[in-house]
């Protein structure tokens, strides 16, 4: 293989890899802001907010986001089995908004990583994300703000 052909092949492979990654990310979980009722001390979210219809089949989300008018950062409500964890999406290192990537939160500013319970996996952050107590009944999940 000549040098020019080698360079073209490598560029095409790199471009293909980038496109595959982008397509894979767009097909994975999407950001969904749930409808919620905000009160003074709690947020109420219907459990049905975790369900969605795809190709006439009901599916379950692993997480939903809640944005209130008074909050600078959203809250991520993550579902694992029948347990719910609510984390404020604000990095404890320098206050950037973290992103949910699979089953971990990642800070795009400095690379801190947290598990879905908000615990630090990798620094520079040394404190866990702010979490909120959650309770539930048959229909609702309650996020306690105080």
Give a quick set of tags describing it.
single chain, 146 residues, alpha+beta, Rieske Iron-sulfur Protein, 7-stranded antiparallel beta sheet, 13 strands
Notes on the protein architecture:
The chain is α+β, with helices and mostly antiparallel strands and 146 residues long. The protein has 2 domains: 1-30; 31-144, Rieske Iron-sulfur Protein. It is 17% helix and 38% strand. It is built from 1 helix and 13 strands, in the order H-E-E-E-E-E-E-E-E-E-E-E-E-E. It has one helix spanning 3-27, and strands at 36-38, 42-46, 51-54, 57-60, 63-66, 75-80, 83-88, 99-101, 104-106, 113-115, 120-122, 131-136, 140-144. Strands 1-2-13-12-7-6-5 form a 7-stranded antiparallel β-sheet, with no helix packed on it. A 4-stranded antiparallel β-sheet has the order 8-9-10-11, with no helix packed on it. Strand 8 and strand 9 form a beta hairpin. It starts with a helix and ends with a strand. Mean pLDDT is 85; it is low at 18-29.
């Amino acid at each position: 293989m000549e040098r020019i052909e080698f360079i073209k092949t490598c560029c095409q492979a790199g471009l293909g890899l980038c496109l595959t990654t982008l397509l894979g990310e767009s097909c994975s979980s999407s950001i969904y802001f749930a409808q919620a009722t905000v009160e003074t001390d709690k947020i109420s979210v219907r459990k049905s907010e975790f369900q969605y219809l795809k190709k006439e089949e009901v599916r379950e989300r692993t997480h939903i986001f809640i944005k209130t008018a008074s909050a600078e950062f959203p809250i991520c409500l993550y579902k694992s089995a029948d347990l719910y964890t609510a984390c404020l999406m604000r990095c404890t290192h320098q206050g950037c908004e973290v992103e949910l990537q699979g089953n971990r939160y990642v800070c795009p500013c400095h690379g801190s990583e947290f598990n879905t319970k908000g615990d630090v996996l990798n620094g520079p952050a040394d404190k866990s994300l702010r979490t909120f107590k959650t309770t539930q009944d048959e229909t609702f999940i309650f996020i306690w703000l105080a």
